[in-house]
Amino acid sequence: MPVNVQNYKEVINELGTHVTLVAVSKTKPIEEILELYSLGHRDFGENYVQELVEKAELLPKDIRWHFIGHLQSNKVKNIAAFIHLIHGVDSLKLLTEINKQGKKNNRVINCLLQVHIAQEEAKFGLNEEELLQLLNGSISQLRNIKICGLMGMASLTDNMDKVRYEFHFLKLLFTKLMTHDSQLTTLSMGMSGDYKIAIEEGSTMVRIGSLIFGERNQ
Ligand SMILES: *Cc1c(COP(=O)(O)O)cnc(C)c1O
Known about the structure:
This protein is α/β, with parallel strands linked by helices. It has a single domain (5-213), classed as Alpha-Beta Barrel (TIM Barrel). 39% of the residues lie in helices and 18% in strands. The two termini are 14 Å apart. Bound molecules: pyridoxal-5'-phosphate (PLP).
């Protein structure tokens, strides 16, 4: 299935200049990524390390790669040299490893802390208390990471009031933290099915896959 260029352009128009689109290209071939690239798009998201590494090797070096999956500590080294932003960080252990690999690569790696906002059990992320504990802990000593903001995934439900409530909660938390930490600039929330609500609730970065690339097989 080809890239839906019309949907892509519509999304770009809707987002305006203050919301970044991460085109989620997981499971999609490099030809389709190149098609969006040729339209000027540079931010792409993947959620498997192996797939990301293979694609990054083959594709232009000015692509900004976003890791949006659940990152295992032992895989950080594979992406540390080039990753632009890691969205789903939810433990000090992982942050410490990212910092270590950042240092090895002589760079500062951008991270978002994932907050658990959905009511479903399965989603990863920190609750508010864990988030504050992490931010107030020893992470200021980690010089090779930069916490740029927060990321969250709403419940997978048709109940859009619930989705809105969850995004609203995350935005409030983000705003509260922002007043203490000027490095926090990015709020990554919103996917194909809920990005319009996410923008209304203050998202600065949306992660959109199927709306642009079509449904995934797996
Ligand atoms: C797959 C994925 C997306 C994109 O989902 P779509 O519904 O296809 O837009 C966004 N965020 C994360 C974390 C994902 O894993």
